[in-house]
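Exercise 7. Given the components listed, write out the predicted structure of the assembled complex. Treat all entries as one system.
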Amino acid sequence: MPLSEFALIERYFRDLGARRDTRIGVGDDGAVLAVPPGQEVVAVVDTLVEGVHFPAGTAARSIGHRALAVNLSDLAAMGATPAWALLALTLPRADEAWLAEFTAGFAALARAHDVQLVGGDTTAGPLTITVQALGLLPRGTALLRGGGQAGDLVFVTGTPGDAAGGLALLQERMRARPDAAANSLDALRDRFLFPTPRCATGARLRGVASACIDISDGLAGDLAKLAAASGCGARVDVTQLPLSAALLAVAGRAAAEHFALTGGDDYELCFTVPAQAPLPDGLACTAIGQLVEGRGLTVCRGGSVIDFSHSGFDHFAN
Ligand code: ADP
Ligand code: MG
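Answer.
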């Protein structure tokens, strides 16, 4: 017998995380959440549509992970510490094996970040997952895109390009170099299927970064957005890009640079810091360039400017 909507919610979504500051979670008409004194709430929402944000047939565990991860990444970019999530799930059918895997992926990441699922909505239709996440930070400390100034150094976390390389492998748009090891291919696919939101880094950047954005549509496009919001331009040196050994092995240097600059789905942070300000110890990031007077993004190799189309992914382009 197919699962009723009520039974489905009870079985999969009622007990996903627990927090002391949750007054009322799943089960009532709305959630009631206590905001600690002196703190502010940061609210984000993101939708994943099958065939648009992930290939049809992607493992349900990855979909559950990514649906939460993309939201936690937005919170990280604001410097907020995740606290609560709401899940609007549209499913073609109540497939229990799929739901168990989806929930396992969602719950593992939620547990790792002390996030409680406090509400949502469940409907039938084409597979679409919308997650809203709520995070906390001390009043007035949110990291914004628009706080950068010419002269600030530009940093990026992790190794951008891996997720786009992984997606290209999953979609068979890229053939790996013949000498690439199987575990390099697995590593790239994993970066697409199970991205790591940089929440701890985002929180440590409060009071340090002048501006911050997360990389969902490609480093070049997202850095251009940060620069535009900050009223300046940006200059990046491709020789400083932190390319992973796996991406270099699988794609070669030229394609790796292209993935790193234009590929989406990394969910790394790109942020700026005033040139004289010290970075906190142990922050895993790489300096890749600088904000400059003027507008737009300039890409260089060593001293010389190279031609580079840097449009990020745009749902309504072409
Ligand atoms: P209502 O009709 O008042 O919107 P629902 O019957 O849709 O309530 O939902 C009952 C409860 O279950 C609510 O607390 C709602 O937030 C929660 N809920 C429904 N779907 C989900 C879901 N996919 N994930 C988490 N909570 C959910
Ligand atoms: Mg109601």
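Discussion: DSSP finds nine helices and 13 strands in the chain. The chain has a mean pLDDT of 94.
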